[in-house]
Model the fold of this input.
Amino acid sequence: MRNILKTLDKLQAELAALRPLDAETNARLEQKLNIELNWNSNAIEGNTLTLGETRTFLLYGITAKGKPFRDYLEIAGHNEALDYVAAAVRNQEPLTHSFCRFLHKILLGEKPFRVKAETPDGQPTTREICPGEYKQQPNSVMTSTGQMFHYAPPGEVPSRMADLFDWYNQQLAMKTHGLLIACEFHYRFVRIHPFDDGNGRMARLLMNLILMQHGYPVAIVPMKKRKEYIAALEIADASGEIADFINFIGLCVCDTIKLTIKAAHGEDVWQDSSPISSPIGSPTTAERILDLTRENPGISTAQMGERIGISKRAVLKQIEKLKLAGRLRRVGSAKSGHWEEI
Done:
């Protein structure tokens, strides 16, 4: 565990020497991290949007056909919650019951909604989710070993959360390392599972709030490392030791710092293939063509080439690939028609 703390702080010192980043570099970096964080955190919980669909929705407000509307609400809520967390860090807001419950309401939306559930004997049913309210029904999870793990009973949630906030404030007073506080807060929060829904996303939001309070960038838990993430939490449940979880999250923070260092050195972070996710990279030529047709369905291939910086012939090649893949079609004539994403 000491090794990850040393590695983290060494990278942080290297980054500090390169700050401040210029405005354009910082904006591009923040955009990439924001998209990555929104997609990965929701995908871990079962959201079906792809990374590209998430990017298109956040940047252009465009939705893909056939995807559940609830998935878009989750992305929008999480994005708004990230903004609220960033503002809370700037304003040095304390962690309290009211803050946590309000963040949950932002994450899940203002109005109650129903989700699919099962009765204790395995029968399908639905249950109501009340954003911003602590849970009213018990919740549990099936572990990888097939055992049922039961979270804190509803009646214990207010006192358990009060204990968590007291512990957090004590750690601040003791000047405990920020990574250690963030990881243990996440672990303790998940053990309580104070809400009926959204606990995983809330745990990661609050963990990142604590990291940012201590001057660190966000930890993006990659969807492709979901099994490792859950395994580290289960090891902590079984052993009472969270060293593996701290190492896992510490490496996630290190990945973000390394990406930021690359940006500070002038590298295009959109081209980066870091371990954060299945790389979003710089939007591919095909993706940029789709983006342009969404912005202006009547755009010509010559105009596309000018916007992207490639020849008309290269544009036509990419369009042919998109047509063969069933992603784009031309409606009407070349002069008066328009592009339509499939």
